[in-house]
Amino acid sequence: MLPLVAAAVAVVCFSLNAPLMGLAMRKGGRPGAIVALRNFTAGIVLVPTTLFLLGPPPMMWEAVAFALFASLFGPGIGDILYNFSIQRVGAATAATLAYMYIFVAYSLDVLVLGAEPRGAAVIGGILALMGIALSSNGFRGRWNAWGAAYGALTAVSWGVATAALKAATDLWTPEHIAMFRSVFLSVVLGAAYWRDLKWAGPGAVTWGSISGFTGLVLGALGFIYSVRDLGVTATALITAAVPVLTPLMARAILGDPIRRGQAVGALLTGTGIAVGIAA
Questions:
Q1: Is residue 278 a contact partner of residue 135, using CB atoms and an 8 Å limit?
Q2: Helix or strand or coil: residue 99?
Q3: Which of 42, 79, 48, 47 is nearest to 210 (CA)?
Q4: What is the pLDDT of residues 50-104, one digit of tens each?
Q5: Is the CA virtual torsion 120, 126, 127, 131 positive or negative?
Q6: From CA 266, how far away is CA 257, in angstroms rounded?
């Protein structure tokens, strides 16, 4: 029960990410600076809390390697590729392409991590992806080869990151992994976007920080716990609800309209998740 609660927390928090970052950018923040600020905020929360409650992580180079890999290919390279895809083909098509990471994660789970193949997971993933496409109006927006390629590469990157995260949880606690990830990315992205950070206004800083706490503290911990306890495939399937719930959050936070097809898409995605994780 608790792993499902952790996964649900991750889904809700991840669904808030795009609207909160959109609000921060409306207040004048630039995309790269907002991502750096999110990681910096997460580090401020996670470092003292984790060190106080659990102490430093054991120095295991294998754990460091897996955590570094998960950081680079998840909220690092993966998210950058996702943004490039959104710029070229729009959020709808980009989300449909990127969430094919479900199948990448499933393949790596079976081929690399030794999970038992499950036909229900494949069927559930197909239903969930169909729901995402319907809900987000996927493939009906702008289209070009580079945007499609970036979306496909996002799926590969996120799938690799999820598998690496599972390997890391066998060696470190979720709190240590989340702490390591936020510190590493805040340093790298902070150096890359230092000038943009200096010019970020108070509104951008406020909403960017809130986004960092919800997405990279609460959401990240829920996701890592879910990967550890439910496994790679089940967690990947559950997160298919994120692009379906995001429009609801965008409606509440940004006032964006909601389309009729999103209700049917949400039902189809929910069915796919249920089929995939119930077997």
A1: no
A2: coil
A3: 42
A4: 999 999 999 899 999 999 999 999 888 888 888 788 777 776 677 778 888 989 9
A5: positive
A6: 16
pLDDT digits (tens, 9 = 90+) for 210-224: 988 998 999 999 999
Distance CA 208, CA 4 (A): 27
CA-nearest of 171, 210, 178, 153 to 6 is: 178
In 3D, which of 150, 165, 136, 144 has the Cα closest to residue 230? 165
Three-class DSSP category at 19: helix
Q: Are 228 and 169 in contact (CB under 8 A)?
A: yes
Q: Which residue's entry shows tokens 């729009």?
A: 90
Q: Give the pLDDT score at 139.
A: 58
| Residue 111 to residues 86, 187, 212, Cα–Cα distance (Å) | 30, 33, 33
Radius of gyration of the chain (CA): 18
Q: What is the mean pLDDT of residues 138-147?
A: 68
Structure tokens at 276: 């995939």
For the segment 203-212, what is each residue's pLDDT rounded down to a tens digit? 888 988 998 8
Inter-residue contact 137 to 261 (CB < 8 Å): yes
Residues 6+ apart with CB under 8 A from 55: none
